[in-house]
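Lecture 7 notes: from sequence to structure.
We start with the chain below.
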Amino acid sequence: MPIFRYSAYKKSGAEAVGTIEADSIRDAKSRLKQDGLLAKEITQANEAAAGKSSFTFLKRSPKLPEIALMTRRLATLLGAAVPVYEAIETLQEQEPPGELRNVLGRLKEQISEGNSLAKAMSAEPKIFNESYISMVSAGEASGALEVVLERLASFLEDQSATRNKISTALAYPVLMVIVGTGVMLFLLAFVVPRIVTVFANSKAALPFITVALIKISAAIRKGWWAILAIVAIAVFIYRKLMKGEKFRRKRDNILLLVPVLGMLRKQLVLSRFSKVLGLLLNSGVPVIKALEITSEVVVNREYRAFLTEVREELIQGKSLSSSLKKSRLFPPMLVHMIAVGERSGTLETMLLKSGEAFEQELDASVSRMMTLLEPLLVLGMGLSVGLVVLAVLLPIFQLNELVK
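Predicted structure tokens for the same chain:
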């Protein structure tokens, strides 16, 4: 049985502290009341101890795959006719110590006090976003919570897989850039200055490429602090500007116009928009509320601002397809699919199909880009190192000619 620490008031008004064994916080309050104590604060002793014994910097929020797995397991338990409280308790017992176990414990306490699962999850906004909570709420209202959780789990698993594909694809190029930059800095800061001393006593005119390399090397060695200061100031100004919504929207708009990367970003946003809106509608969330939630999930502020306008037009009675058609942000294929869905009453199905199509396009685009990027990076590194070697060798050849 869990042990709870409490601070409470006696009938005389004096404060009392201690521990008590109880099944839940609610049970602990009831037992304290029977003993003539008015509870002020109650916390679970083992959770408090665990929090003190662990380092704060090691505490981390549950990752997307963990939440997806938890959602899948919860759907399985509810599908087997296990009550919600018992299902959450079972998940907590099998979960290893960590933040997710603590979250499940808090959900269990909320449910034991008579709250619904959606309301309990709304108290954990860092773990469960608004779309997740709205779908759970709709599932509880319709009596098909396990079905909704299955869809949610599949969506989260797909989202996690997409992130992993992009991260894996970017790992090699990022490593190449870091290694290449490190090699060039090492050559310019340590190797080039030592070789340059060979030409110091020579009165021969050095090639332009060698002079340029010497100046760059000197600037890095003598002015590294200025370079770091400029970078630090630029980062500070950027973060300051990022606090303004106007600058953020302008930045997001520029990102959409960047060649290749802008196209990838559009495909990612459209995939998320279609899938989230389709899942919300499929779970029974009203279209206006679903669009409001989807606009918050879409990270690009240019899309978010336009979807706010679309929501206002839906309230006035316009159709979703006619509103989306006005913007270049939504391709004709998606608008056409939505229009077909509205006419046939299968809007959620069309949105989900569109989301899958955009996700497949994103995967193909990332694969193509990585296929081209890897040889280009190798070529770029080779040219950079080759220029350094050429700048060093040209004066040596000139000296040899003078000796002859």
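Points to note: Confidence is low (pLDDT under 50) at residues 46-58. The chain is about 75% helix and 5% strand.
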